TrEMBL record:
A single GO cellular-component term on record: extracellular space
Molecular function as annotated in GO: metallocarboxypeptidase activity; zinc ion binding
Protein name as annotated: Peptidase M14 domain-containing protein
Family assignment from sequence similarity: Belongs to the peptidase M14 family.
Transmembrane segments: none
GO BP annotations, alphabetical order: proteolysis
C-alpha cells in the first residue's frame, strides 16, 4: 500500500431495531448559554432537527423514510433518514462529536435535493440507497461539546464484568481549560468506541485500551451506529460506502498560505494484507483501500471543479493512521469504502462564522460521492491519483 504521512497533523478528531420516529419530544438538555463566546444559533439544534426531518419526510410523499434507530445516553432519539431504493448503499453520519455541526445542515439540504422530483434525483434514487444519521450524539450537540455524558460507573452498571477495570482511555473526567468542564460532567469520545468485531462484548482485559486499539461499543451512540450498520449488512450484504463528517482546527494546504476548507481521507488502519496490518489479517478479504481512495477523489474532484475559490482549498488529512476504534477504521475493515470529511473550525474556535461556505463544501463533496457511486463513474478513477492530493500542514508556508 502506498502511504503518505503528514508530519504536522495529529490523529483523527474523529442499532437497535428501527422504530417509527417520535417527534416533538421536550428537550431537557438544551443549555441557555454555551461555554464559549462564539455564536452557534445558526446551526441546527435537536428540536429543529426533529421538525426538519418531519417536514422533509412529509413533503417527500414517501420518498424519505425517517426512523428512530436508538437513544442517546440521556434518552434523546437518534434518527436515520433513508432515501433511494438502489442496490448500492451509502451510510453517512454527522455530529458524533457535538461541536462539529456543519454536516447536520448539509445532510438536511441533501435530503431535500435527493427527494425532489427532478430527473437527476430520480435516477440517483434508482441506483443507490442513502441512509443519513444527521445527529449521532444529540446530548453533546445540545451541550455544544465533543463527548457524551456517560460516566464510568454507569458503564460498569451496564457491564458488571468491567468492575475493577481501569476506565477506558477515551473517558475524560478532568476539566479542560478554555473548554468544557469534564471534571464536573465526564464523558466518552464516542468515536473511539468502535470495534471491527461488530459482535464484540466488553471484557475487562481489554481496558483501558489505547488510541491504536479497538474500542468496546460501551456507549449507546456507538452501539446505535453499529446496529444501523449491521442492519444494512443484513439487508444489502455489505455497506458499500461509509462517510463520517467531522471538524478540525485551523490548518493549511501543504506548501501554501491557504487555510484548509476541508480535509479528506481514505486511510484509518494499515492494509490488513501487509505486515503493518497483521493485527487485522482476518479482515484482509474485505478491505478495499483503492475503492476508498476513489471515493475521496469523487469529493475532491467535485470541489476542485468550482475553479479559483475557497472550495479548492482541499487537502489530505494525516495518513498512516492506525485507529480501529473509530467508526471509519472499523467499517473499513468490514468492507466499506470510507471517506472522512474534516471541515475547518469547531464551534469553540469558529462558531458559526463561514457556516454557509463550510456547509456548502460538505454538501458539494457528498453530492460528488453520491452521484459518482450512482452513475458508476467512481470506477473510472485511478486510485493512485489520491496520492497527488496535497497534504494538510499545521503551519502556513512562508
Amino acid at each position: 500500500m502506498k502511504r503518505r504521512w503528514a508530519s504536522t497533523v495529529g490523529v483523527l478528531g474523529l442499532c437497535t431495531a428501527l422504530a417509527m420516529p417520535v417527534y416533538a419530544v421536550e428537550n431537557n438538555t438544551k443549555t441557555a448559554e454555551h461555554h464559549h463566546d462564539n455564536a452557534i444559533s445558526g446551526f441546527i439544534d435537536y428540536q429543529e432537527l426533529q421538525k426538519s426531518l418531519k417536514q422533509i419526510e412529509a413533503n417527500s410523499k414517501g420518498v424519505v423514510q425517517v426512523d428512530v434507530a436508538g437513544q442517546s445516553h440521556e434518552g434523546l432519539d437518534i434518527y436515520t433518514a433513508r432515501v433511494g431504493t438502489g442496490d448500492k448503499v451509502l451510510l453517512v453520519q454527522s455530529e458524533i462529536h457535538g461541536n462539529e455541526k456543519t454536516g447536520t445542515v448539509a445532510i438536511l439540504n441533501l435530503l431535500k435535493t435527493l427527494s425532489n422530483n427532478s430527473k437527476a434525483s430520480q435516477q440517483i434514487r434508482e441506483e443507490v440507497t442513502v441512509v443519513f444519521m444527521p445527529m449521532m450524539n444529540p446530548d453533546a450537540s445540545e451541550a455544544d461539546k465533543r463527548r457524551n455524558s456517560l460516566t464510568w460507573s454507569e458503564v460498569v452498571e451496564s457491564y458488571p464484568q468491567l468492575s475493577g477495570a481501569t476506565p477506558s482511555w477515551n473517558y475524560l473526567d478532568r476539566g479542560i481549560s478554555q473548554s468544557y468542564d469534564y471534571g464536573a460532567n465526564p464523558g466518552f469520545d464516542v468515536n473511539r468506541d468502535f470495534n471491527p468485531d461488530l459482535d464484540y462484548v466488553p471484557e475487562a482485559q481489554d481496558f483501558p485500551g489505547a488510541s491504536d486499539e479497538p474500542g468496546w461499543f460501551i456507549t449507546p451512540e456507538a452501539q446505535t451506529s453499529r446496529d444501523v450498520y449491521k442492519s444494512l449488512q443484513d439487508e444489502f450484504g455489505t455497506v458499500d460506502v461509509f462517510v463520517d463528517l467531522h471538524h478540525q482546527g485551523l490548518y493549511y494546504v501543504d506548501g501554501t498560505n491557504d487555510p484548509v476548507t476541508l480535509s479528506l481521507s481514505a486511510q484509518f488502519v494499515p492494509d490488513p494484507s501487509t505486515p503493518e496490518g497483521a493485527d487485522y489479517a482476518e479482515y484482509a478479504d474485505n478491505y478495499n483501500y483503492d475503492f476508498s481512495r476513489q471515493l475521496n477523489l469523487l469529493a475532491y474532484n467535485e470541489l476542485q471543479s468550482y475553479g479559483e475559490s475557497k472550495f479548492t482549498n482541499i487537502s489530505l488529512y494525516s495518513q498512516g493512521l492506525d485507529l480501529p476504534g473509530t467508526a471509519l477504521g472499523s467499517y473499513a475493515l468490514n468492507g466499506s469504502g470510507t471517506v472522512l470529511f474534516e471541515v475547518r473550525g469547531q464551534t469553540q474556535s469558529l462558531g458559526q462564522k463561514e457556516k454557509g461556505q463550510l456547509v456548502k463544501s460538505v454538501e458539494r463533496g457528498l453530492s460528488g460521492i453520491i452521484e459518482g457511486v450512482s452513475d458508476g463513474s467512481v470506477e473510472e478513477l485511478n486510485p493512485e491519483a489520491y496520492e497527488d492530493i496535497p497534504l494538510t500542514a499545521y503551519r502556513p508556508a512562508f
